[in-house]
Amino acid sequence: MPKVVDHEERRRLLGAAACAVLSRSGVAGTTVRAVAGEAGMPLATAQHYLPTRELMVRAAMAHLAERVVGRARTLRRGSTALATLRLAARELVPLDPERIFEARVWLMLTAEALIDEQVATVVRENAAELHGNLVRLIDLARADGSAGAGVDGSAAASALATLLDGLTVRLLSGVLTPDEARSEIDAHLARLAPAH
Predict the structure, then answer these.
(1) 0.90 surpassed by pTM
(2) d(Cα 109, Cα 35) in Å, to the nearest integer?
(3) Cβ contacts of 87 within 8 Å, gap of 6 or more
(4) CA 20 to 30 Å from 65, out of 45, 93, 121, 127?
(5) From first to last of its 196 residues, what are the pLDDT tens digits of the chain?
(6) Which domains does the chain have, with CATH numbers?
(7) Which runs of consecutive H residues, i.e. helices, occur in the chain?
């Protein structure tokens, strides 16, 4: 009887391996051979699933997204939608070893987007998805009164994403401590609350 192959599981394995190689060796060292070795998979098998560099990058980004979405599904809800947004924002910055790993890989891929339009396309797609998710949370906060009725959801989501990007770089470079980053998020979100 022929062996049953779980193609999705192999793609996930290769995505995780691509992230590990990226974190250790950067984009230049991320080859199909290196990813295959990291995954413990024959080169020909890895080439079957990731025949191009773009697919390797997409697999790495999909793996990162899967990790983040997995955590988001278990995120506890705050007492208000704005409190939930605060918890979600804190999940998106590197405050622990798992998220430091993810942020390192993401920044390497983001830097590659400066010179590779295919990578840039994937980065833009992910940024648009994040923006949409932040807008939804801000809209919920406006609906429950924890954010001001006059808050522009799209503009607020853009400002928050920009803050989170900056915090990520500053945390990874040791300019900010985790407590300082949390305070920055709190101060930013406090500006969305209704005026009293």
Answers:
(1) no
(2) 15
(3) 75, 76, 77, 78
(4) 45
(5) 556 668 788 888 999 999 999 888 887 888 889 999 999 999 999 999 888 777 887 788 888 888 887 887 887 888 999 999 999 999 999 999 999 999 999 898 888 889 888 888 888 988 998 999 999 999 999 999 999 999 999 999 999 999 999 999 999 999 999 999 999 999 999 999 998 6
(6) 1-53 (1.10.10.60), 75-190 (1.10.357.10)
(7) 7-25, 32-39, 43-49, 53-73, 81-91, 97-112, 117-144, 153-172, 178-190
Q: Which residue has the tokens 């020909």?
A: 44
3-state secondary structure of 142: helix
Q: How far apart are CA 120 and CA 111, in angstroms?
A: 9
Helix, strand, coil percentages, rounded to 5, for the chain: 75, 0, 25
CA-to-CA distance for 50 and 37, rounded, in angstroms? Answer: 13
